[in-house]
């Protein structure tokens, strides 16, 4: 084993007295480099141009290298740090003296002492083992475990490599997406258009429902005409396709491609909701001049219409997917198995929709209020004859099960959104089903 070391400068001693000192032979000092403002601005400008080009070429790698730079794994040591290099020479015995192993250290140096301790420890370990020195290799797994530990520098390096890989994949993926959009350009535009129209129609319907007695018949009729013309126009545009067959639960004639099946389901699901919104406008026309009890009845009817729509929408994709899975090109056994699994999954969702529909129908058939009863004159006087919601005198007062009294119109509107008393927060309305009495429509797409 050979070793060589270099230590940092120390105070003068007997060993360092003969150390030669090197000086500048010409004794000329080098002047510091000066930069002009113009050159510094040019450097900053070139650095900015280079950084912008690097960001446009590789944005993720540029950001990671800026905020988490990777330092060299083997940095150059400073002159102030002592260095020790050890070379293992095979075939040497542990009992050889230090000068035969190639050690050139000063006496009583820390390197010599640590080497002696390490050699004595290996000798003791080998004598306590099997006698042949094999137990000296017991320390190898510990070294391997240290090598497996990952430093933050290595983690940042791996992160930058992953960012470079993503930057190579993203352009090709975007190119494929661009080609896919071009192939289905009309379908994308139609889907975006009918979806935006449906969202806007839902907001209009909710605002008209909240107006109650202030609704204008001409406005409701105008919205109804626009909604129906929109539905008729979409189906007229695709009159040569078999899109409308699934509306009457008839499977398509030919096996639809996957994306065509998705488009057919999206169009039918959106158009059915648009037609239901037009029907809700008819209900708002009928209950335009209603009061208290009529508005509560209107909310129950709107809820029943929505749950009926949810049940029908759950059945709407079934003919399309049935024809899609029943493909004999995949084999009779495989097509029959996939079709049977789909119908089984569909049946579980249909059962839930049927239960919600019957719950809404039962709520409509009950003439009495399920969250309270009409208050007597004495109960109204005890409550102060002042509604806590509208801050006006009671109009058709209703007493809840928690003994608080409100106007029927006010409390009916309150329970369209809440289930507790406006004052004491006691649970008044059971959480049996969600109410759509505000005229809203479910905006989630039913794709399967």
UniProtKB/TrEMBL annotation:
Native source species: Heracleum sosnowskyi
Subcellular location: Membrane
InterPro entries: RNFT1/2, Znf_RING, Znf_RING/FYVE/PHD, Znf_RING_CS
Polar residues bias spans: 17-28
Gene Ontology cellular-component terms listed: membrane
Membrane topology type: Multi-pass membrane protein
Residue stretches spanning the membrane: 217-238
Domain annotation RING-type: ranges: 387-425
Ranges of compositional bias, category Low complexity: 1-16, 29-38, 126-139
Identification of the protein by name: RING finger and transmembrane domain-containing protein 2
Keywords associated with the record: Membrane, Metal-binding, Transmembrane, Transmembrane helix, Ubl conjugation pathway, Zinc, Zinc-finger
Origin: domain of life: Eukaryota
GO molecular function, one term: zinc ion binding
Gene Ontology biological process: positive regulation of ERAD pathway
Region (Disordered): 1-42, 91-153
């Amino acid at each position: 084993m050979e070793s060589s070391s270099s230590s940092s400068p120390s105070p003068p001693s007997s060993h360092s007295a003969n150390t030669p000192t090197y000086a500048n032979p010409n004794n000329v000092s080098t002047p510091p480099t000066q930069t002009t403002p113009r050159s510094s601005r040019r450097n900053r400008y070139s650095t900015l141009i280079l950084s912008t080009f690097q960001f446009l070429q590789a944005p993720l790698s540029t950001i990671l290298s800026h905020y988490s730079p990777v330092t060299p794994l083997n940095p150059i040591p400073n002159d102030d740090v002592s260095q020790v290099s050890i070379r293992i020479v095979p075939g040497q015995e542990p009992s050889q003296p230090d000068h035969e192993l190639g050690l050139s250290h000063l006496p009583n140096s820390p390197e010599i002492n640590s080497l002696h301790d390490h050699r004595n420890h290996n000798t003791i370990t080998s004598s306590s083992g099997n006698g042949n020195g094999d137990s000296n290799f017991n320390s190898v797994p510990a070294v391997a475990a240290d090598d497996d530990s990952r430093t933050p520098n290595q983690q940042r390096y791996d992160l930058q490599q992953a960012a470079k890989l993503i930057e190579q994949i993203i352009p090709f993926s975007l190119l494929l997406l661009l080609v896919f959009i071009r192939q289905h350009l009309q379908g994308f535009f139609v889907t975006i258009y009918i979806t935006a129209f449906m969202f806007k129609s839902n907001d209009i319907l909710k605002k008209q429902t909240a107006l109650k007695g202030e609704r204008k018949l001409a406005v409701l009729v105008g919205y109804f005409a626009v909604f129906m013309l929109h539905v008729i126009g979409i189906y007229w545009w695709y009159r040569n396709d078999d899109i409308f067959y699934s509306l009457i639960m008839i499977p398509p004639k030919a096996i639809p491609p996957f994306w065509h099946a998705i488009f057919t389901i999206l169009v039918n699901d959106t158009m059915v909701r648009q037609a239901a919104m037009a029907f809700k406008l008819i209900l708002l026309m009928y209950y335009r001049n209603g009061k208290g009890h009529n508005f509560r009845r209107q909310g129950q009817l709107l809820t029943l219409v929505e749950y009926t729509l949810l049940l029908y929408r759950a059945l709407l994709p079934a003919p399309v997917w049935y024809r899609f899975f029943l493909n004999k090109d995949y084999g009779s056994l495989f097509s029959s198995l996939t079709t049977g699994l789909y119908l089984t999954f569909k049946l579980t969702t249909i059962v839930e929709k049927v239960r919600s529909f019957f719950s809404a129908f039962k709520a409509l058939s009950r003439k009495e209020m399920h969250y309270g009863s009409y208050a007597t004159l004495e109960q109204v006087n005890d409550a102060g004859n002042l509604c806590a919601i509208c801050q006006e005198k009671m109009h058709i007062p209703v007493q809840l099960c928690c003994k608080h009294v409100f106007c029927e119109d006010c409390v009916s509107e309150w329970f369209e959104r809440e289930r507790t008393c406006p004052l004491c927060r006691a649970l008044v309305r059971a959480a049996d089903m969600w109410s759509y009495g505000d005229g809203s429509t479910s905006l989630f797409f039913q794709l399967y």
